[in-house]
Amino acid sequence: MLALSLAQLRAHTARLVATCLAIIIAVGFVVATLVLNQTSKTTVLDSVGAQYRNTDAVITADLEAPGDDNSLDSRKSLVQTLRAIPGVGAIAVDRSTYSQVRLPGANGYRFAQVTDVAADKSLQWQRMIAGRLPTALGEVAVGEHKGVSIGSTVTLLVTPVDETTDDSADSIDSAAAQAPETIQAKVVGLVNLRGVVGIGADQIFAAPAQTIALGPIETDTIRVASAPGADAQTLAPRIHDALTKAGQRNLFVRTGEQEAQQIADEYTGDAAGLAMILLVFGTVAVLVCGLVIANTFAVLLAQRTRELALLRCVGATGKQLRRGVLIESLVIGAVASLAGVGAGIGLAAGVSAIAGQFDSAIPLAGVSVPWSAVAIGMAIGIVVTAVAAFAPARRATRVAPLAALRPMDPPPARSRAGLLRRGAGLALLIPSAAVLAYGAFGGKLPIALGGGVFSFLAVVLLAQWLVPPVVALAGRLFGPAGRIPGRLAASNSVRNPQRTAATATALIIGVTLTTTMVVGAASTRASTASMLDRAFPTDVSVSSNGQALSAQLERAVAAIPDVQAVTSLTGANVKVDGKPDSESQLFGIDPVRAAPVVRSTVGAGVPKPGTVNVPDFMTDTWGAEGAVTRIVAGKRSIELKVHVVTADTPLAVSSTDMAQLAPKAPAAQLWIRLVDGLEADGRADVIDKISGTAADFAPNSYVQSSTEQRDSFDKMVNILLLIVTGLLGVAVVIAVIGVGNTIALSVVERRQEAGLLRALGLTRAQLRWMLLWEAALIAGVASVLGMALGAAYGVLGTSAALAGEANLKVDIPWLQLLLILTVATTAGALASVLPSRRAARISPVAAIAA
Fold it and tell me: Most buried among 150, 231, 628, 789, using CB within 10 Å?
C-alpha cells in the first residue's frame, strides 16, 4: 500500500502543487511568527542583561505594596544593612535625576535622564565606544549623537533640591525662587546604548555622583556582587531573608538574571501581544489551508473514482484505500511542512536583518529558532493535512465497488450531517452574538473576542444554508448580463449547495478578517485621534522653567511660518487648603484666546470657570472627580470643582479664576498650534525654529511637542495595518487557491454535463465564460458577505477596545473596502481560468461516453 501511495503521488504531482503551496504558506507563517517572537525576547534579554551581567542580586521596591512610601529613596539604612550580610561584596546604588540638556549646535533644551556611575568597576555596566566614564563634576558620558564627540561640551540645567517653599502668589513655580544650576559638562566618553531597553540614546547621560546630587534623586535599584569566595547562587535568597528580619519589607530581591528576565518580559509584553495577534491570523491561515487541502483531495479522489473502484474490484478493501490516501496525505504534509519550516525561518531571518538596520519598537538582532517552533510547524502541517484528507478519503471509499464505477453524487444539503451543522450553527449564533454585543458595548475586550470567535464559527457552520440563496439572488440580478453563459452559471452555482458553500467559505474567512482589521484600524485611528486631541489640546508648548515669558516671545513665535495660532498661559504656585505639602504649579487659560489654539475643547482642553483640571495622578491630594477643593495662593483662596484629566495635561483653571488667585501671575507657558497637513520633516523644521526663538528670548525654557506622539501612533497603526493586511493577504491567496481547486472539482464532477452542453451547441468560449461567471458570482457574494461581517466585527471590536479610553468614532474606509471587494472578486474569478480551459478541451463524445 505504501508503494501504491507513493506511485499515486508521482502520478498527480502537478495537482498537488496547490496543496503543497497552501501548506508551505500556512506553516511558514506560523513558524516565522514564533521565531520572530523568540528573537525579540532574546535580543531584549541580552540588552537588559548588560546592566546586570556582573550582578548577583538586585534589590527593587514594590511600589504597589500598601504604605505611604515604599521607594528605595526612603530606605536610609538599607545599604548599611546590606553591608552587614555575610557574602555581600560590592554594592552599587543606581541613582538618577532629570535635567534639561542642550547639545552642541542645538537651539533649545530637552529633557534627559542623568544616571550615576557605579564606584566599583565590577558593577559598571556601560559599554564604551570611545573615551572613558566620567569621574568628576563637569564630566559626562553620552550615547551617540549627531555633532557630539569626545571633548564636546553639553549644557545641563539641574534644578537643586530645595526644601523651602515659596508662598508668593505671583511666582511661576518653585524654580523661580531657586533657578536651575547650569553645568557646562565636557563629554569624556561615548556609550554604546544601541538596543538598551527602555532608555533611548537621546535620553540618557552618565555623570558622577556629584552631578546627580545636585538635583532631586531617584533611586532605581541596588545591585550587589558577591564577595570573593562567597556562594553567588545563594546570595539573593540570603539577602531577602536578612532584609526581612531587619524589617526591610516590600522589596523584591532577585538575581541579576531574574531581574533582566523580569524587565524583558515587561518590555516584550507588546511584542508578545503582537505575536498572539499574528498567531490568531496564523490559525486562520491554517484553517483556510485545511479547507483547500480537503478540496484538493476531493478533486483528486473524484478524478480517481474509476481507479479506486477497480482496486476494490480486485480485492482492495475500503480500509486499505483509506489508509493509502492517508499515507499520501502524511507524505505531502511532511514534505510541505518541512519546506514551510525552512521558509518561515528564512522569512524571520530576513525581517530581523531589515529591522536591525532601524530603531524598531521591537528590537531584533540575528535569529533565534526555538525547537518548539520547528515542532509546532511540522505538527500543524502534518496533522492539518491528514485531518483535511480524512473526510474526502472516507467519502470516496465507502461506496460499493460496482457503485463506485458510476459518478459520485454529492451529499444533499438536507443530509443528516447538513441538518446537524445547521442546528449547531443556529444554537451557537444567538448566544455568541449576545456575548459579542455585551463585550463590545461594555468595553470588555476578552469577552467580545470570545463572542466574535464563536459567532464567526456559527456563520461558517451556517454557510451551506446561507450562501446558496444569496448566490441565487445575485445570479438572478447579474446572470442575464452574461447571456447564455451567465444564465447557466447562475443555475449551476446553486445546484450543489455544498460545493458553493465550500468555495465561498474560504474567501469569506479571508475577506472578513481583512475587512475587520481595515475598519478596526480606521475607527481606532479616528477614535484615538479624538482622544489625543483631548489629552494634548495643543501641538507645541514652550515652558518657562522658572522665568517669565515675554510678550515679544509670543509675537516672535506667532510670526514663524506654519504656526497657525499662539496663546500664553499664566502660572502661579498654589496649595490645597490644609495640605502643606501640596504645592503645585497652576496654569490659567483664557478660553477666548485658547479657542484657535486647542484641538479639542472637551476634557483637558480649556477648564470651565469654577472648575480646576486635575491630572489623574494628583487626585489623592486634590480630590476625585466632582469634589470641591479650596485652592490657596498666598493670602488668596478660591473653591473650585475638580475635573480629572489625563496625566499628560497640566493643572489648570480658567483665566477668570486665576485672576482671583494671582492677578499678577506672569506668562509661564505658550501653547502653539501648527497648520494642518504638515509632513514630518516640515513639522520638525517648525519645532526647531520655535526652539531657537524660545532660546533667544528665554534661554532656560524648553519646548515639548505632542506631534511626535501623534506621528508615532499613526506610524504604529499604519505599520500594524500593513503587516496584518499582508498576512491576511496570505489567507486570501490560500482561499483563491481553494476557489481554483473547487472549480476544478466542479469540472471533474460535471464532465458529462460539459460534454452534453458542447453537443447541444455551446462553444468552448461560452463554456469558459460560464465557469468564469460562476466563479465570479460565488467570489463576489463571498466578498460582500465577508465585508459586511468584517465591518460589523471591526466596529464592535474597536468599541470593546476603546470603550474606557475614548468615545467611539466609526470610520468606514469605503475606498479601501471597494478595493478589497474588487481584488477578492477578481482573484476568485481568475482562479477559474485554468479549470475552464481544461473543461473547454473536453471532447463532447468522450465526455458523454464517460
Answer: 789
Which pLDDT value is given to residue 521?
74
- List, in order, residues 6 or more apart from 296 with CB less than 8 Å away: 15, 16, 18, 19, 22, 741
Write out the three cell numbers for 176: 523661580
Phi, psi of 208 (to 5 degrees): -70, 170
Distance, first Cα to last Cα, the chain: 28
**Do residues 506 and 288 touch, judged by C-beta distance below 8 A?**
yes
CA distances from 177 to 159, 172, 278, 420, 699 (A): 11, 9, 54, 80, 17
Task: Please give the grid coordinates belonging to residue 85.
Answer: 550580610
Place of cell 445575485: 474
- Helix, strand or coil for residue 358? coil
Average pLDDT of the chain is 75
Give the up-direction half-sphere exposure of residue 128: CA atoms within 13 A in the CB hemisphere: 15
pLDDT in tens, 579-635: 777 788 888 988 888 888 887 655 556 788 888 888 877 888 888 888 899 998 888
Radius of gyration of the chain measured on its C-alpha atoms: 35
Q: How far apart (Å, rounded) are the C-alpha atoms in residues 445 and 443?
A: 6
Q: How many helices and strands in the chain, by DSSP H and E?
A: 27, 19
Distance CA 60, CA 45 (A): 18
The pTM of the full predicted model, rounded to 2 decimals, is 0.60
Cell of 483: 447571456
| Pick from 638, 644, 578, 582: nearest CA to 613 | 644
- Which of 250-254, 690-694, 748-752, 794-798 bottoms out in mean pLDDT, i.e. has the lowest? 748-752
Instruction: Show the cell assigned to 712.
Output: 508615532
pLDDT of residue 338: 92
Query: What phi and psi values does residue 251 have, to the nearest 5 degrees?
Result: -125, 145
User: Could you tell me how far CA 196 lies from the centroid of its own chain?
Assistant: 21
